[in-house]
Structures are given as structure tokens and as C-alpha cells.
Amino acid sequence: MSVKKRIAFVISTILVINVFSQEKATIQINYAKETGDMKPVWAWFGYDEPNYTYMKDGKKLLSEIAALSPTPVHVRAHNLLTTGDGTPALKWGSTNAYTEDANGNPVYNWTITDSIFDTYIKRGMKPLAQIGFMPEALSSHPQPYKHDWQPGQPYSKIFTGWAYPPKDYKKWGTLVYEWVKHCVNRYGKKEVESWYWELWNEPNGGNGYWKGTVQEYCKLYDYTSDAVKRALPTARIGGPHVTGPSGSGAAQFLKTFLQHCINDTNAVTGKTGAPLDFIAFHAKGAPRIVNGHVRMGISNQLRDISSGFEIVASFKEWKDLPIVIGESDPEGCAACGMATNPENAYRNGTMYSSYTAAAFARKYLLADHFKVNLLGAVSWSFEFEDQPWFYGFRDLATNGVDKPVLNVFRMFGVMGGKRVAVNSDQMVPLINIRDSGVRRDATDVGAIAAKSNQSATAMIWNYHDDDTTGIPATIVLQCTGLPGKQVTLQQYRIDAAHSNSYEVWKKMGSPQKPTAEQIAQLEKAGQLEQTGTSKETIKNGSLQLNMQLPRQGIVFIKMTW
């Protein structure tokens, strides 16, 4: 073989290898084929530590969250009735809403709960008002009460006297009545009618957030719902916020509660059943370390959602009732940083953002599959005040600097109107990703798309459960059903080089005391970055775009006419 032929052979071999080593995907979006409403199910957030709400970085982040959503954002927080002086700590918060005098008479103090709700209302947000936890003076097992848990310690340490049933259910009912009545007086009937009230958190299990039985929870729900409705008959109340309905224990708890609200004797009224305006359960993934890297467990989360939807759909009385996935996350402990829990190292970078995009798209599809009324899915992620920079908490921002994951919600905030048909030859089918995740060599390259009167949008991701470096995907995006002859096309990205404060921080040398100039640079890097704008010609309603998308990256397009 001559030298020229040998060179030609080597070049052709390299080209062949390159072609076969690339991820390729063809995504077809038909904007003329509507599949359902683009409901803002993503515009729900929550956190354990309610006292962070009115602190410096808490107020800043809430303002940003409110600004990114075209509809009011709902916010859920734990510990709104927990006894204490309001000093925040990880996995802890307090309001001192209820104490008793020396004679055992109730003393109500709404100062801190008002500070929390005032912060929401000022920003046009709506409380998903959690009625819990048990005040020390009402707890049937009050001591010990305040915990001093820290990351790395046994999680069970947090479950103290606040997790027990009341020693007096009537006093509990009166507390709830007084709280709701106070809110009506402070914010007005119309405003409070737009909220959702809920009882407790993750009561299944018996050794965690609820130290009582399912029967005791149902009794507490009877007293709670009766009190809420007495204070405001048009208020909306729901539950039970069990976690993990793909497991038999949580599934049975959920079924027992739903059946109770239909058929059981009400502990307060003596009548049959209890009012129920929405149903809530929680869904969590399960990341772990495999061969030195993080492997996500998106299938665990999707199975929880699937099972919860299936249970609700099985009740003819409740199948059309709104559903709130009260916590919907890659795993269970927001305050467990990656230093103590290395499986949580996904949280600072693009793994968290690409996971969020891929997971939310499937929530819409699962709701379609089971024909249920999904109202919202709470991302249990907020911020942790005065903690180390990029410590690996499950949060949306660190020290006032937005993480890449928050930019996914900025993208969702632009999507409205109707969802439209999407087909991708490399998007893992719904049932497959629910049952098995994304574990094969090929990544999950998919999209969710929507249209309104004068715009069309699409969010496209390149996701894999394994947080490893892979080759970019070459994507052919074929859009049909577009009106007019020309559109203005805007593109945005989240990847290692765009909308990514974490990568910028690492390039700075990972400073724990960044300068004012560095902080300004990080704040800018934390925003959603536009990577292009152009005028595109539409031919017979069609437009084709070609793009490269890195692994764990997201590209967002908006077309206006």
C-alpha cells in the first residue's frame, strides 16, 4: 500500500469511527398537534427551614422565583407551628405560634408566621400552608423537643417531640381555627381562598415525621379540616403527603386515608367522611456512587409518581381531584451536603439541571397516561443562609448566587399555552425510563414543547443517569405546524460554559471568601444566558435546526412571530 493510500485509509477510518462514536438524535415537534395544557406544575417550591424566608438571601431568592413565573408561585415550608424563638438551623425552624400560660390556657402569637406569609404575599406568591408541626405544649410526648442534628449524623435524630399526636385534639382544632381566622383577617377572604392548606408531612412510616398511627392521622385530619372550614368554608384543605407510594406501606397509608375521607365516621362531626380538596404525596429518586461517580435514580422518583397517580385514579370519587406532588426531588435530604453524602455531588452542576428537565417532562406524560389532574410538583429546594459556598446542599442558590438548576425554571417560566406533540428517536420511552432509568450507553435526548398565540417554545436535554463525561449529541430538530413565513428565534443554554455559576466559581479557585468583584461575576454567571438570536424563514410551516448538545446540557428555543 502506497503512503498516499495508507494516509487515505487512516483518515477514512478516523471519519468512520467519529461518525459511529457520536450521539445522534432526530427530534420532531409538531406545533399544530396539541397534547394538553402547559400547566405551570413546576411553579411550586418548598423547604424545611421557614425562618430563612425573611432573611437576606431568602428574600432575594424568593423575589427571583416570583419574577421567573408568569403565574403565582406556591411555597410550602415545614415547622410553621413548631415551638421556638425563630432561630434557624438545618432541618429546623420555629414560630412559637402556640404556647400555654400557667393555667394551661392557649397563648397565640402570629408574629413569625406573619413574617413568613407577608414575605410570600408581598411577592405575589401563595402559601401551600402546612399545618404542623406539634407545638411543645400540645405534644403527647414533648421531650426532647428541639433537635441539634448536623449533616453526617443519624437522620432519625431530627424526630423529637414535635412529631407526636396532640394530647388534646380539641385544643389542636382550636389552634388551627384561630390561625386560619387570623389569616383571613390579615390578608382578606379572597386572598386566603387562593391558598392551599395541608396537614403534616410524610406521616407514613411510624418512626419519622409522624409518631402516631394512620388512624390517629385520620383523626387529626378530621379535627384539622373541620377547623379550617369553620374559619373559612371556601378554604381548600388536603393531604396526606405520604412519601414513596411505590412502596407498600406508603401505598396502603394513602389508600386508607382516601377511603377514610369517603366512608369513615368523622371524629368531629360524627358524619361520614371528611372534606378533601386536593391529594398530596411525595416522590424521591435515589442517587448513589458507582465506580467513583454519581449515578442518579430517576426511575425511583418516576415510579413513586406513577404509583401515586395510579392509586388516585383507582378511586372514582377522587380521580378528578387536583394532585400536588408535595416533594418531588432526586433524593430525600436537602440539608445533607456532598461532604457527608458524596452521592449528592450532582447538586451544584448540570446533572441537577438536566435531571430536572427530563423528570418534569415525564411528570406531564405520567399525568396524561393515568388521566389525572396534576396541579403542582414541589421542588424541595430553596437556599441555606450563611453556609459554605457550593457546599452541595439541594438548593437553588448559594450565598445569593443562582445555581444552574434555577435556570431550568426560568426556561419553564417562558413556556405557556398548550403542550404539543414531540417525537425523538433517542428519548427513552415513558415506561422504560420509569422502570429502568437511563442506564444504557445511549443518553436520553428529548424535548418538551409548547405554543401560545404568538410564540412557540422547546426545551431540549441530553440526560444520562451516570454523571460522567460523554460525547455531545448531534441533534436535528424538525419543527412543523408553524404559522407565517418568518420567526425570530432566540436560543438559551445550560451547560459547562453557559448559565453555570459553579464552573465559573471553580475556575476562580473555589474561593470561600470571594471578593465583591468575584461575587458580581458569579451572580452574572448564575443567570440564564442567551446564546443566539436570528431571523428564520418558515417554509410550508416547517423549520429545521441542527445543534450540538453536551451531555447533561439543555438548550431552549423560543420562536416569536
Automatic annotation (TrEMBL):
Keywords: Glycosidase, Hydrolase. It holds the Pfam family Glyco_hydro_39. It comes from the Bacteria. SUPFAM superfamilies: (Trans)glycosidases (SSF51445), Glycosyl hydrolase domain (SSF51011). Residues 28-527 form the Glycosyl hydrolases family 39 N-terminal catalytic domain. The keyword Hydrolase applies. Belongs to the glycosyl hydrolase 39 family. This is Glycosyl hydrolases family 39 N-terminal catalytic domain-containing protein. It comes from Niastella soli.
